[in-house]
Design a protein that fits this description.
By secondary structure, the chain is an all-alpha fold. The chain is about 80% helix and about 0% strand. The longest helix is centred in the C-terminal third of the chain and has 17 residues.
């Protein structure tokens, strides 16, 4: 009964959130024992095996998930991240683009592509994908952080500073990491006084936490 498989799958995801690995594995396998082509269970197992360091098994299950459902976003993302960890940015880019081929506004794929292109120093491409991500989720901080990173790289420091301040505004409070980033950008801008102020604020905030 496919509904029984879905029930086991739901349990697997719940135990995954609780970091209860043995039960996560058990219920993913139970779901697959009933429906061997259950794509979300296959992708979940792939993600689980990558987490515990069994990469070959992870890749096997993620590929099986895509075979079962060619639009399995989680499987493409996880395979892309595996390629990234192995230093294969080109392979990661291709996998993330597979998602956009059927879901052009997928936020996670856009962010992942922006970061990959930034890593290989194709900043104009990175900028394009981060901007698209921000247009889809204008209140999500990760897009603004990506844009700030790019503008800092391009030495457009005022834009980077404005974006980091926007992240602080959207998050409701500064963090030591954000203040450190702002300090670094001010330092690169050769505004040493403001750089020092932000570094000191970051240290104070970090000590208070």
């Amino acid at each position: 009964d496919p509904k029984q498989s879905d029930g086991y799958l739901g349990l697997a995801f719940q135990y995954e959130k609780l970091s209860m690995d043995d039960l996560t594995l058990y219920y993913f396998n139970k779901a697959i024992s009933i429906d061997p082509k259950q794509p979300d269970a296959l992708a979940g197992l792939g993600k689980y095996y990558e987490k515990i360091g069994k990469r070959e098994k992870a890749i096997e299950f993620l590929k099986r998930a895509i075979s079962a459902n060619s639009k399995n976003t989680q499987a493409y993302l996880e395979l892309g991240f595996i390629n990234e960890r192995e230093g294969n940015s080109e392979g990661a880019v291709q996998l993330f683009k597979e998602i956009l081929a059927y879901d052009k506004n997928n936020f996670d794929a856009l962010i992942a592509l922006g970061y990959q292109y930034f890593k290989i120093e194709k900043t104009d491409q990175a900028l394009k994908y981060y901007q698209r991500a921000v247009s889809i989720k204008p209140k999500d901080l990760i897009g603004y952080l990506g844009l700030a990173m790019i503008f800092e790289k391009k030495k457009e420091f005022d834009k980077a500073i404005n974006l980091l301040n926007q992240v602080i505004y959207l998050s409701g409070k500064p963090s030591s990491e954000l203040l450190t980033n702002l300090g670094r950008v001010y330092y690169s801008k050769i505004d040493y006084s403001l750089a020092i102020n932000h570094f000191i604020e970051a240290i104070i905030l970090n000590n208070e936490q």
